[in-house]
Amino acid sequence: MLCVSLMPETTELALRDLAEAARAADLAELRLDAMREFDLARLLAHPPCPIIVTYRPRREGGRYDGPEAPRLETLRQAARLGARYLDVEHDALTSLGDVAPAKVIVSYHNHERTPDDLPAIYARLAKTGAAVVKVAAQANHILDTVPILRLLRDATRPTIALSMGPRGVLTRILAPKFGAVLTYSAPSAGREAAPGQVALAEMRDLYRVGRIGPRTRVYGVIADPVGHSLSPRLHNAAFAELGLDAVYLPLWVEGDPAAFVRAMREFDFDGYSVTIPHKQTVMKALDEIEPLARRIGALNTIQRRPDGSLFGTNTDWTAGMASIEAVVGPGWLGGKRALLLGAGGVGRAMAFGLRQRGAEVTLADIDAARTETLAREVGASTMDIRELQRGRAEKNERGGTEKNERDGSPDPPRANWDILLNCTPIGMHPKTDASPAPKEMLRAGMVVYDAVYNPLETRLLAEARAAGCRTVAGIDHFVRQAVEQFELWTGRPAPVDTMRRVVVEALR
């Protein structure tokens, strides 16, 4: 069941919120501790949906700071007036007494961490005889979700278990897959009753939580950070379009991504997209890696095979080459001179792709050692990426090309590049006024590719278009690599138009 947590200030606002909640959720939690005043008789007289009444004290993360006796009496009154559930703290259950016919949710909250003895805590709560056991603990790392998922999977009685905070979002979305009685959502963004709650509309429409069950296949994007990623919108829209029982999650993985992938094996996650900064370090968690992806030394796609083994591949290079060739035509890259900025995961993929197509490649990255290593692997030359920005800065300071020619200061490099590729995050939202290369080096007839897809047109692409260059936008690459992932995972043709439309709408 999908429950929306409400924290209105007054009875009138509560009545309005309850009516709205009833149109989209299965039930509502009414947080009395957030209200300046409340009239329980009015609130519970003709509720539009089942109500959980919660009157949370500060010791458990709530706002109530008064004496205990009147708080408990208010909960008893709510039971007499028809509340479907009462959420009662584990240390107050005995004092509350019998509240039939209301059902009791006995709850434990830890807003600081996920304790090591969580199974023992759950066992004690389960012995109370309450109708539902609830455990909520702060996730300070995504691996803190593992004991929460285990609690749900192995529960001996009706259970709610969740990880609070942005690193624990996956437990809220996957709660119905692992048998939770319910999962909580916020009425809208900015109105969260607890950290990490997802807005009701997203839970219902984006993640389709109401359709998630034990057989739902699970995918997600591994990133640090992950909040900016559009992959959940793109892939979930594709699943919905084809009516597939699958969900795609944002997975904020800090530190070692291989440790996360290994930990999730016991929960049978079906596949992952992998992005910055994990495309190389995640490889050590896999059983098999596609040969070219191993040569590239980076991957962006993981698939769980029927035997449970994990297979990794790289759809970045194929999507990147296809995006460029859609503009210039097949075979154009052979013999062309390419300046590639960035030697990270995407840069590595594109460098191998360019060399496979027969291009001559020059690499530039702020990490000189990384640049030299990749250059040796693919047979490329290198240049100092700082020359690009230094040339622009000195030119601006000295007043333009004519003055530079008089005093000998350096202009931006003017090698006869046929194609310039940006595989760095420079120009990405929110720093959209940045460009990795000065516009003075752009010339008519050059092809300019930018892997950045947010915004739709980066400063680099805008300046390239103004200079008469042919441009390849990051959105083309982004959608193509996702299409390849989708088809690998599902064995079905991807709804390409839907996937592209979702991304464009999100970026406008």
Chain-wise SSE layout:
Blueprint (H helix, E strand, L loop, with lengths): L1 E5 L4 H12 L4 E5 L8 H6 L5 E4 L13 H14 L3 E5 L3 H4 L6 E8 L7 H9 L5 E7 L6 H9 L5 E6 L4 H5 L9 E3 L14 H7 L10 E7 L7 H12 L3 E7 L4 H7 L7 E4 L13 E2 L1 H6 L4 E4 L5 E4 L2 H13 L8 E5 L3 H12 L3 E5 L3 H11 L2 E2 L3 H13 L2 H7 L11 E4 L24 E4 L8 H8 L3 E3 L1 H17 L5 H12 L1
Parallel strand pairs: 1-2, 1-8, 2-3, 3-4, 4-5, 5-6, 6-7, 9-10, 9-11, 12-14, 15-16, 15-18, 16-17, 18-19, 19-20
Antiparallel strand pairs: 11-13, 13-14
Give a verbal description of the structure:
This protein has 508 residues and is an alpha/beta fold. The chain has 3 domains: 1-213, Aldolase class I (TIM Barrel), CATH 3.20.20.70; 215-314, Rossmann fold (3-Layer(aba) Sandwich); 317-472, NAD(P)-binding Rossmann-like Domain (Rossmann fold, 3-Layer(aba) Sandwich), CATH 3.40.50. It has 19 helices and 20 strands. The strands form 3 sheets. An 8-stranded parallel beta sheet has the order 7-6-5-4-3-2-1-8. Strand 16, helix 14 (368-378) and strand 17 (381-382) form a beta-alpha-beta unit. Helix 9 (231-242) packs antiparallel against helix 19 (496-507) and helix 18 packs across helix 19. The radius of gyration is 27 Å and the shape is elongated. The model is unreliable at 392-412 (pLDDT under 50).
